[in-house]
C-alpha cells in the first residue's frame, strides 16, 4: 500500500470500507476525539458496540492505527476510517464539530428512515466484491454478506436506541438483497441465510417496540406485500413475513387479510401429500397467532377446536390442557395421531412425537401401565437406549422378567430387518451387562460391532474378538477401494496385536502384501507389521 496520509486515505483504502467509515462519520458515530500526550489521536466509534480507535499521525502522514473491533480482513476497518475523517476535519480546522457525537446524541435517522437505495448500495457493493462471473463461491459467501451485516448492525443500533421504525427499512432491504444473492451462491455454511434470519429476528424485535399506528400499519403492509414476492418463492421467508404480520394486526379486518394471505400462499404451492399438510399447518398457526394478537381468546379456542386435524394445532391444544391440569383430556387428545394408520406406516417421526407427549400425560396421571406401553413402542420405533433406560426404570424390580419377554418378542418380530433386531438386542445386552449374549451378537454382526464394544469385551473374549477382526481385515481387503480402506484394516490389525495376537496380525499383513502386490498403498501400509 502506498504512503497513506490524511489527504489521500479515502483514495487508497478499500472503497467499501471507506464508504462505511464515511457513513459512520457523517452520522455522528465518532465521539471522544482527542490527542494523548504522545500526540496519538484517540476516539470512540459506536456501532452496535463502542470500539476504541487510536491513530498515530505525524505531519499528516498516518503511521499506525489500532481498533479493538473483531475485523481482521485488512489493516483498516470502518471504525478507523470514521476516526480518520474526524481527525482530518479537526486538523484542518474547517469543521464545526457537528459531525462528531455529543453526549446524549442519538443516531440520526433520515427520511423514511434512510432511503432504501442507500442501504441497497452498501449491500450490493459487498455482493459484487464476492461475485465471480455472476456466481458467489462457497469461500466468498462471508464477503457477500458483509455489507448486509453492516446494515444490520445499524438496524440493531436503532433498536437499542428505541427507534424501532428506523430499524425496519434496513432489515427489509437486507432480506430482499440477500434473497437475490443466495439464488446465485454456494451458501453451504448458511452465511447469507444467517443474515436473512438475523434481519427477521430484528424485525420481530421491532414489532415489540412499534407503538405509532403509522409505523405498525406500514410494516404490516410491507409484510403482506413481501409475502407475495416471487423472489422468495420456494423458501420459508414468505411464511416468516406472515408470522410478523400476524403479530401486527390491530383489528379483525387486518387479521382476515393476514389469514387470506396465508391461504393464498398454500394455494400457490404445487406440493402434495405431507408438504401440503405442512403448509396448511403454517397457515393455521398464523391465523391463530393473529387471533391471539387481537386478544380474541374465545375465537382462538374455537379455531383450535375446529382444526385439531392439524398436527401443530393439536399440539397447542395438548399443551393448553396440560397447563390447565386436564391430564386425562390431554392423554385422550393423543389417541388420534397414535392410531392414525398413515403415521404408523410412513410418518414415524410424528408417531414418535405423540407417543412422547402421551408419556408426559401418563406420567402426570401416574398411569404406570400406559407409560410402559408407550416407552416400549418408542423403543421399537427408535431402537436406542434413550427409551430403553426409562422403560427399565418404569418396570423397576419387574424388569428382569420383562426383559426376557422383550428379547423373545424382538427375536420373533416379522417385517423388521435383521439389523434392526440386532441393534435393539445390542442395546439391551449393553444396558444390563450381558457380556456372553453381546459377544455372540458381535460375532454375528461383524467387525463394526466389535469396534463399538471392544472395551466391554476385550478382557473376557480376546480370542473371539481376534477372529472377528481377522474376518473383517480379509473382507476389507477384498473390497478395498483405496488408502482409507487399507488404513482402517491396519487399525484392526493393531487391535489384534493388543489382544495378544501379534504373530497372527503379522502373518495376515504379509499374506495381504503377497496376494495384492500391485496395490502400492496397501503394501506400504502393511509394511508396518512385517
Keywords:
single chain, 530 residues, 67% helix, two-stranded antiparallel sheet, 6 strands, 4-stranded antiparallel β-sheet
How would you characterize the overall build of this protein?
- By secondary structure, the protein is an alpha+beta fold.
- Among the domains are: 9-92, no CATH class; 367-432; 447-529.
- Helix content is 67%, strand content 6%.
- The protein is built from 28 helices and 6 strands.
- It has helices spanning 9-12, 15-26, 78-92, 116-130, 141-160, 164-182, 191-209, 213-226, 237-248, 252-268, 274-293, 297-306, 311-323, 327-333, 335-339, 341-345, 348-365, 368-382, 385-395, 399-412, 418-431, 435-445, 447-452, 454-457, 462-479, 483-498, 502-515, 520-526; strands at residues 30-35, 41-46, 50-58, 61-67, 131-132, 135-136.
- It has a 4-stranded antiparallel sheet, with helices on one face. A two-stranded antiparallel ribbon has the order 5-6.
- Helix 2 packs across helix 3, helix 8 (213-226) packs antiparallel against helix 9 (237-248) and helix 10 packs antiparallel against helix 11 (274-293).
- The longest helix is centred in the first third of the chain and has 20 residues, at 141-160.
- The chain starts with 8 loop residues before the first helix and ends with a helix.
- The relative contact order is 0.04.
- Residues 106-114 have low confidence and may be disordered.
